[in-house]
Amino acid sequence: MITIVDSGIANIGSIINALRRFGVTASVADTPASVVSSKALILPGVGAFADGMQSLHRRSLVEPIRAAASAGVPILGICLGMQLLAETSEEFGLHEGLGLIPGQVKRLKPAHANERVPNIGWCDVSTAVRSRLFGDIPSGGPFYFMHSYALHCTNADHVAGTIAFGASAVCAAVERDNVFGVQFHPEKSQDLGLRCLDNFMRLTASA
């Protein structure tokens, strides 16, 4: 059973509909007890980092999510949800995250005339050979992004995918044991996005 964390900072309807394409009925968790009892978690989110963490704290979901990660529960962060996996963010000040992926969220820095912040649209994602989320997805495939900040991982081995932006590659996906994250919106990324979600569901089945 896939459980979507309802933090109040995302429209979860599109993710529910995407999962239904595979015949998966997802439950929605907005209480500590519902998170603790979950077998797999999806953490979506849009907006500012501080607002996202405040919303999780208001619903007393921070410690249950951390406990689930420690217990080996598969977790997938999407968009802001991926950024919330980090230790800290510099967005509008310094803010503490969930601390599940060592690193800091920093603002995108354009280096070319065609680059804008926020970065909105389709970007080709170069994937790591070892990636489990992208195992059957060709590297360089397009996914849909909408973000102004990106996670800078302390450990390069946690980077599962990157896009070309600015002076260097920008992290677009992360994997650390049972914790996964994608900066793009898989539910808006057509067939490749659905395959990415399907791969996560397959991972949860074998967890």
Going across the biggest sheet, name each strand in turn.
2-1-3-4-13-12-11-8-9
Estimate the mean pLDDT confidence.
95
Distance between the ends: 12 Å
* Structural class category: alpha/beta
- The tally of domains stands at 1
CATH class designation? Alpha Beta
CATH topology: Rossmann fold
Written description of the protein model:
It is a single chain. The protein has 207 residues and is α/β, with parallel strands linked by helices. The protein has one domain (3-91, 101-206): Class I glutamine amidotransferase (GATase) domain (Rossmann fold), CATH 3.40.50.880. Helix content is 26%, strand content 32%. It contains six helices and 13 strands. The protein has helices at 13-20, 32-36, 49-58, 62-70, 80-83, 190-206; strands at residues 3-5, 27-29, 41-43, 75-78, 86-89, 95-96, 101-107, 119-127, 141-147, 149-153, 159-165, 168-176, 179-182. The strands form two sheets. Strands 2-1-3-4-13-12-11-8-9 form a nine-stranded mixed sheet. A four-stranded mixed sheet has the order 6-5-7-10, with helices on one face. It is globular, with a radius of gyration of 16 Å. It starts with a strand and ends with a helix.
